[in-house]
Design goal:
Length: 204
């Protein structure tokens, strides 16, 4: 189960569609806030899917050769086959020139609620379903499976966390009292407000 979740989580986090939308959100107005709303909604959706599966299984893997066990195996095969066929179809289909989706023009003025809804909309359903089918085998009586589920959620969100952290670190912040850009003191600016300050030339 652990290896399967690692592979699925990696495939989810490297998906191009939601990463592109997330980058557009980060470069919009209030990008850090919108990115955080998108990230939290994305993570909450993954946790919700896992919670539903765990509630259905009772936190215990189904017995081998039982009906639930057979159904889980069939679901994995169907989902995997569907993903392979879809990938082959997209690979063979000739590319068609088209403009960007309509929602990209509205990203700049999107609200955090819209960003959260966009995260739910752009989650790769096939891969999330594959993850859900794998979680059926989770045994919540062991700490290792709890850690595996938590690692899966974080891995599937890793690209968003990294971009959000980089954007937050680079986001300009207002100067704190007692300090100004380029190192000038507030007293120096106040006492010499009428004449050009050497700090202003240093700042360009």
């Amino acid at each position: 189960m652990v290896l399967d979740l690692v592979v699925i989580g990696t495939a989810i986090t490297l998906g191009p569609l939601h990463n592109t939308a997330f980058i557009l959100l980060l470069f919009s107005r209030r990008g850090v806030r919108q990115g955080l709303a998108f990230l939290l909604s994305w993570l909450a959706n993954l946790v919700a899917v896992i919670a539903v599966v765990v509630l259905l299984t009772g936190g215990r893997p189904p017995e081998r050769h039982s009906t639930p066990s057979t159904a889980a195996i069939v679901a994995k095969l169907v989902i995997g086959l569907a993903l392979v066929l879809y990938g082959a179809y997209r690979h063979r289909m000739p590319p068609r020139p088209h403009g960007p989706p309509r929602w990209t023009a509205r990203v700049d003025n999107a609200s955090p609620a819209t960003a959260a809804g966009l995260a739910w909309l752009l989650q790769p359903r096939g891969l999330v379903a594959a993850g859900a089918a794998t979680v059926v085998d989770a045994d919540l009586s062991t700490l290792s499976d709890w850690l595996a589920l938590a690692a899966y959620c974080l891995l599937a969100t890793l690209s968003l966390i990294a971009m959000e952290n980089c954007t937050w670190s680079a986001h300009p912040r207002p100067p704190t009292p007692g300090s100004t850009p380029c190192g000038a003191g507030w007293a120096d600016i106040r006492n010499d407000s009428s004449s050009p300050s050497p700090w202003s030339s240093a700042c360009g």
